[in-house]
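Shipment paperwork, digital attachment
Item: protein structure file
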Amino acid sequence: MTIGLATVSSFSIFQWIRTRQKVNLAALHLKRETIAILADTIIPKTESPGAAEANVADFVVNMVDACFDTSRQRRFLAGLAEVDDYCRATYHQAFIECGMTDRVSVLNHLEAKATYRMPLIGELNRLFFGEPFIVTLKSLVVEGYCTSELGATMGLAYDYIPVHYQSCIAMGESQRVWATN
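Attachment content:
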């Protein structure tokens, strides 16, 4: 009983100290190029501009820096470190030096690692450890791309003057989603 109580109290003290430590946001700004390449791997250039052209990396860095709490910032930085560690262990080079097929396989690895066969385990993992890095990254990249000028006007179907509202419309096979003011 005493050992269990001591373990729980020391663990909570450790957690409290860890959450009070400052996050090295300079490391985040140094990883801007890695973030840009990750974003461009998620949304590459096709007929529409890619994430790199839309400066999505700046959006991601600003969101993590200004809008995330310290625990989410810490998880994001740990995820970036994990990307480079995995690339160095698997491909013997940093992520920014990898080719497109290797980059896609790194993202697939992160996606597989974040996915659990049993949904309950995935929910418990999110509850105790927070959202996986790849989920956060994809969310920020898509939000940054869709809210950028290039993404909203060239990546999405932009309607300059929306005349009327239709809550549900059928989409054509190659039709883009809509972006309006």
